[in-house]
Design goal:
Number of strands: 0
Number of helices: 12
Oligomer: single chain
Shape: globular
């Protein structure tokens, strides 16, 4: 494992965590930090996924089976636990945490299986899309045509991918993994810096893509050392949003200062993910939550 990727992935997930904070900010530096900058988190994760796929796993046997363990099971647990919890709170206390979904069959089709939109635990839509992309890659590289059946319910009743830019950036990550060893250390950083400037001038709405690619390439060149905490990063991605949603009513009541409130939301989400991570390090059955990481 390139340890720079551990840091890049953690930074990307922290950015995603920022964007799910509850607040009433509409402008200013804090708003930009919490609403604009975090948009790069998912984009960078998409590049990382493609890069690692090409570097490590594209020709491994049983790719989809491994991704069921590392992606599908944690996804179903992260959404299933939230579904059960919000249902119990509604039935026992009468408090409705749902704002996009209803307490009907759509709670399963949309809240759990995410046919047409993000699931009940919104940030995990990335896990849904990236798994389907891995299925596609297994079909393309290993000729396992029967795996196309996995796409059938989404093609018939929903959307195959919720965000196709994730697929595009995944492919870009594959290209970088293939080409970067043959190029100079900073070649692609310079290339995407130029593309970013060009996009800002002529296509500002699309500038986020070369920016994400530049950040990935630049950070990858740094001689960084870091502890392997992929399990913590993954758990933070999976569980930060429900922690924030559940704790926000209490924080809103007792912590009126907006910035302090936001800081506590992030701190509680990080603390919960770290607790799950430490538990999984101590008791191996808990590793199912992070797909064995």
């Amino acid at each position: 494992m390139n340890y720079s990727i551990e840091i890049i992935r953690l930074l990307a997930v922290v950015l995603i965590t920022f964007t799910h904070t509850r607040h009433n900010l509409e402008s200013g530096p804090a708003y930009v930090l919490l609403e604009e900058v975090p948009k790069y988190g998912t984009l960078i994760l998409s590049v990382i996924s493609g890069y690692l796929f090409w570097s490590k796993s594209r020709l491994e046997p049983g790719l989809v089976e491994k991704k069921v363990k590392s992606l599908v099971v944690p996804y179903l647990l992260a959404n299933g636990l939230v579904l059960v919890l919000v249902t119990l709170v509604y039935l026992v206390l009468g408090f409705n945490y749902l704002n996009r979904l209803s307490f009907d069959f759509s709670l399963i089709t949309e809240g759990l299986f995410s046919l047409n939109g993000p699931p009940i635990n919104p940030p995990t839509y990335f896990v849904r899309d990236i798994f389907l992309i891995f299925v596609l890659m297994d079909v393309v590289f290993n000729r396992r045509w029967w795996l196309l059946l996995i796409f059938l319910p989404y093609a018939l009743f929903g959307k195959v991918l919720l965000r196709y830019d994730i697929l595009g950036l995944f492919v870009l990550g594959m290209i970088l993994a293939y080409r970067q060893p043959k190029a100079g250390k900073y070649t692609y950083s310079l290339l995407f810096a130029v593309l970013t400037i060009a996009a800002l001038i002529w296509l500002p709405g699309y500038s986020k893509y070369p920016v994400a690619a530049f950040l990935f390439c630049f950070l990858l060149t740094l001689p960084l050392r870091f502890k392997r905490i992929g399990g913590f990063t993954y758990l933070l991605h999976l569980y930060h949003s429900p922690v924030m949603v559940m704790t926000y009513p209490l924080l809103a009541k007792w912590v009126p200062n907006t910035l302090l409130n936001i800081g506590l939301q992030i701190l509680l989400a990080v603390a919960f993910a770290w607790l799950l991570y430490r538990l999984s390090e101590r008791w191996k059955p808990f590793k199912i939550l992070s797909g064995g990481r």
